[in-house]
TrEMBL record:
This is Choline transporter-like protein. It comes from Oldenlandia corymbosa var. corymbosa. It comes from the Eukaryota. One of its GO terms (cellular component) is plasma membrane. The chain crosses the membrane at residues 41-63, 95-115, 121-141, 146-167, 187-220, 227-260, 280-299, 379-399. The keyword Transmembrane helix applies. Its main location: membrane. Pfam families: Choline_transpo. Choline transporter.
Length: 491
């Protein structure tokens, strides 16, 4: 493996990082204040404008049917050409309130169990998810919700295929997650940040659910309601992703500091790293976080699915060619939209695309990309997040079925999204630690060796095996190509 310290991280600020022996002033780790500029300002402005506009729209929809039907005379725009039904905002708002409470409770339980039962919790969430999806699929078919039943059945099948395709990677993945949990619990501020932003999310959800309850109660046909709910859900997804990635930037920056300085209590540690990280993430780097939050989650999920399908194809040359094309397309997108960019944003204050490109080039130049591709910790954490959301959505949907059976799927699906976001704010602290560990290993492996020598040896051994595996695969491809070329020429 090439020496990671010879890699040019495309930033002059990296010269300020102290060597592992700590001989340089650790306070110079983060880029100096003068080198930080406002990044991706357009996306910051767009996100803020979207929040203001959405807040107004949510307030209008919620107030229109709060304690009185059609306060703002919106029904006159739907009368005559769409189905009209009556309802009040408070009929559904209480259900969303319970969903938010359940999501918060699950998130806090998840955080509290991390210290003692991290591996068991992750294994259970990973294996139960397939069963849970299958059970919900059966319940949807039983309720004659065939579209949703089919969707959950496909989800259960894809989840099962993914688990089968990565079963050999799980021991290493669990090792990485165990060490990430160990790191997080040495930084109590990280858990505090996660809980704090869960409270911020709850405040926004109070308004969001108020407006969504008004939409569900609106005198509008089901198709009109669904279109409005889809738009509002996309907005909530972006807002939740932004909050999660703010936590990601703060925690990953603090983990990077701990690894660089050799411990939380090192004398060279900055006096108030949390305040500094929080200030940068909410001001100069906020636009980059808003920009990256639009794309990274979707691209990462697509990448995991394509990797799983690719590993199960076999010798079907035509299908393999098509999947390889999609795989390389997604890999190109990953170069510009990856979660490791947030560590670079936290440490160097770059814009998002610059950070993502530098992180990926660092991994490729050092060979660590093979290790990152082998690890599926992000997928395991996502499974726990989805399971939490499904539990919230199922419980809310059952309650809705008792009182408003025709709105069960509508309320249950939006409540599921709320639960996923709240649980995701708990899981993101672990993902932040994982990303920072990989970045530090690529920048200077001795940082990991000093923190945990046994873990360093296990990472290095796994990386060596993955590089050997890739080399053998490359030789097989060249040999097959040469054989086919010779057969063509002889024919």
């Amino acid at each position: 493996m090439a020496d990671p310290r010879t890699s040019s991280s495309s930033s002059s600020d990296f010269s300020a990082v102290p060597p592992p022996n700590g001989t340089q002033d650790g306070r110079q780790l983060l880029s100096p204040e003068v080198s930080r500029h406002w990044r991706d300002v357009f996306w910051l402005a767009l996100f803020v404008f979207h929040l203001v506009l959405l807040g107004f729209v949510l307030g209008v929809f919620g107030f229109n049917r709060f304690k009185k039907k059609d306060r703002l005379n919106i029904d006159k725009y739907t009368m005559g050409f769409l189905e009209n039904q009556s309802g009040l905002t408070e009929d559904y708002w209480k259900m969303y309130a319970v969903a938010a409470g359940m999501g918060t409770l699950l998130g806090w339980i998840w955080l509290s169990l991390l210290a003692s039962r991290a591996n068991s919790l992750m294994k259970v969430s990973m294996h139960i998810l397939t069963t849970y999806l299958a059970v919900i699929s059966v319940l949807c078919f039983w309720s004659k919700q065939f579209l949703w039943g089919g969707a959950f059945a496909i989800g259960a099948a894809l989840q099962f295929l993914y688990i089968v395709s990565v079963i050999d990677r799980l021991p290493f993945t669990m090792l990485v997650l165990q060490k990430a949990v160990k790191m997080v619990w040495t930084i109590p501020e990280a858990v505090g940040v996660s809980c704090g932003f869960m409270i911020v999310m709850l405040m926004w959800l109070a308004l969001w659910s108020f407006g969504v309850a008004g939409v569900v109660a609106l005198s509008l046909g089901d198709s009109g309601r669904w279109w409005l709910l889809v738009l509002l859900s996309i907005s909530l997804f972006w807002t939740g992703a932004v909050l999660c990635n703010i936590v990601h930037v703060i925690v990953s920056g603090m983990v990077f500091l701990v690894l660089i300085h050799g411990g939380r209590d090192a004398e060279s540690m900055p006096s108030k790293p949390l305040i500094s990280s929080l200030r940068h993430s909410l001001t100069k780097s906020f636009g980059s976080i808003c920009y990256g939050s639009l794309f990274t989650a979707a691209i990462r999920t697509l990448r995991w699915e394509i990797r799983g399908i690719r590993s199960r194809i076999g010798n079907n040359e035509c299908l393999l060619c098509l999947v390889d094309f999609l795989f390389h397309l997604v890999e190109t997108l990953v170069r510009f939209f990856n979660k490791y960019a947030y560590v670079q944003i936290a440490v160097y204050g770059k814009n998002f695309n610059h950070s993502a490109r530098d992180a990926w080039e660092l991994f490729q130049s050092t060979g660590v990309e093979a290790l990152v591709a082998y690890d599926c910790s992000g997928a395991v954490l996502l499974m726990g997040t989805i399971l939490g959301g499904l539990i919230v959505g199922t419980c809310t949907g059952i309650w809705t079925r008792i009182h408003h059976p025709e709105r069960m799927i509508m309320v249950g699906s939006t409540a599921m999204l709320m639960g996923m976001i709240l649980v995701g704010l708990a899981t993101v602290v672990i993902e932040s630690a994982v990303t920072s560990i990989y970045i530090c290993y690529a920048e200077d492996p001795l940082l990991i060796h000093r923190w945990d020598a046994e873990f360093f040896n296990q990472m290095s051994e796994t990386l060596h095996q993955r590089l050997q595996h890739r080399s053998s695969r490359a030789r097989e491809v060249v040999h097959r190509y040469d054989s086919q070329t010779q057969q063509t020429m002889s024919a």
